[in-house]
Amino acid sequence: MTSPDTQGATESAGRVSRRGLFGLGAAGAAVVGAGVVAANTLFDEPPVAHASSTSDPFPFYGEHQAGIVTPAQDRLHFVAFDVTTSEKAELVDLLQEWTAAAARLTQGREAGAFGAVGGAAEAAPDDTGEALGLPASGLTLTIGFGASLFDERFGLAGKRPAALAALPKFPGEQLIPEISGGDICVQACAHDPQVAVHAIRNLARIGFGKVSVRWSQLGFGRTSSTSRAQATPRNLMGFKDGTNNMKLEDADLVREQLWATAQDGSAWMAGGSYLVTRKIRMMVETWDRTSLAEQEQIFGRNKGEGAPLGKKAEFDLLDFAAKGADGQPHIKDDAHVRLAHPSFHGNAHLLRRGYNFVDGSDGLGRLDAGLFFIAYQRDPRKQFVPVQLSLAKSDPLNEYIKHVSSGLFACPPGVRDAGDYWGRPLFE
Predict the structure, then answer these.
(1) Residue ranges making up the domain that contains 248
(2) Where are the alpha helices (DSSP H) in 133-218?
(3) Which distant-in-sequence residues (6+ apart) come within 8 Å of 87 by Cβ?
């Protein structure tokens, strides 16, 4: 499924940079749980409604997690963890530690209060240091819980949401178990790849002994727009991707299609959303030898402007009944844009924010490249599953793509303030 998209201020400006040390010592830290520094209110700047440039921060606290309707950034580092501790208290402590670190990192600060160079020389640093001097770069960190977390280890089986039901096996998929699933996922998006990688690296460092990395994925060049202020990007097949994506400005649609409610059956997920990931490898060498006319017929759009076939502009309304001079529909019945369209799936929409990837080449010299598909929704059973079933069965694009990884995660509501933490309602 390939379509559906500074805080570099210095101390002299009255703001604390990543490199800045707070000089508060132990008196500046309040402990929440085991070893959690929760004195974020001492360091937090007033939240901003949006990032005015690619260097500025997005607010961390709010009703919903950032990184969902947030205007899609240019870079991604996505990771899935397996929980290795069997103690619920240790898992809760870790989520508290991660939340405190995330609140700092997303504002352009270091992961711990003493940072990379401010602690005792005999101790490991509080931060790995590779982002010293870099601005926030629009970093967002978004967490989700996989179905495997709801087993017998932590007593959470009774709180597993019905919407977190396992995805069906779709025709043609060739999933690799080692790069699928996971107990917990974290999505780091930023405009600077080093900032995104730094954030995931530090969460993994903090989680040592409690979680292990199951798999991860780097991405570049967002493949969807999540705001009308953004131009539509292109995927590695050269086509504009996500023209009809749900946008943050679509308030009624977002409320109806994106955010879970208590009435959906899991009160702890109210204000959260469900995330589906799919790593989709593209057979780019074969695609590159395919005629332009066939490429356009497969997608149902022209390659240059991105307009629906038979129309002139990208955002012209799709007309599946329109016919050309030969009496044939401009957009074929099996065109990708038609098979994925909400009108054929009970008005099911997805908020897509995927990324291109190139992971080197395989042993035959072919690029290991494609789309890391990311989609948020209120209920995958009613949204992603019917759309993907239609595509898997009938899309001629399947000749050029292969699904090799899959993930499904319940992303809880946002963190309200410094006394809150990721997923708190689930553990109460």
Answers:
(1) 64-117+125-151+172-416
(2) 193-206
(3) none
Q: How many CA atoms, within 13 angstroms, populate the side-chain half-sphere of residue 233? A: 25
- The dihedral through the CA atoms of 89, 67, 273, 344 has a sign that is negative
CA dihedral 335, 408, 188, 244 (to 10 degrees): 30
Q: What are phi and psi of 12, to 5 degrees?
A: -65, -20
Mean pLDDT by 10 residues, the chain (428 residues): 36 33 30 34 36 85 98 98 98 98 98 93 95 97 98 97 98 98 98 98 98 98 93 97 93 97 97 98 98 98 97 96 94 97 95 97 93 98 98 98 98 97 97
The answer to whether residue 366 is domain-embedded is yes
Q: Are strands 211-222 and 351-352 parallel, antiparallel or unpaired?
A: unpaired
Does residue 145 fall inside a structural domain? yes
Q: Which helix (H) or strand (E) holds 285?
A: helix 284-287
The first and second tokens of residue 8, run together, are: 């570099």
Q: What is the DSSP letter of 395?
A: -
Q: What is the largest CA-CA distance in the chain?
A: 79
Query: Which class for 12: exposed (0-12), middle (13-18), buried (19 or more C-beta within 10 A)?
Result: exposed
- How many Å apart are CA 159 and CA 267, to the nearest integer? 9
Assess if residue 1 is contained within a domain.
no
Amino acid at 246: M
What pLDDT is attached to residue 51? 60
Does any domain span residue 220? yes
Report the alpha-carbon distance of residue 321 to residue 330 in Å, rounded: 8
Main-chain phi, psi angles of 17, to 5 degrees:
-85, 175
Helices (H) and strands (E) in the chain, counts: 9, 9
Q: How many domains does the chain have?
A: 1
3-state SS, 1-24, equals CCCCCCCCCCHHHCCCCCCCCCCC
Query: What is the spatial distance between Cα 301 and Cα 311, in angstroms, rounded to a whole number?
Result: 9
Q: DSSP E strands: which ranges in 39-178?
A: 75-83, 140-146
Q: Flag whether the pTM goes above 0.90.
A: no
- Angle CA(177)–CA(181)–CA(183) in degrees, nearest 5? 135
- φ and ψ at residue 218, rounded to 5 degrees: -95, 145
Dihedral over Cα of 316, 320, 325, 328: its sign = positive
DSSP 214: E
Residue environment code for 223-244, b if the CB has 16+ CB neighbours within 10 A, otherwise e: bbbbeeebebbbbbbebbbbbb
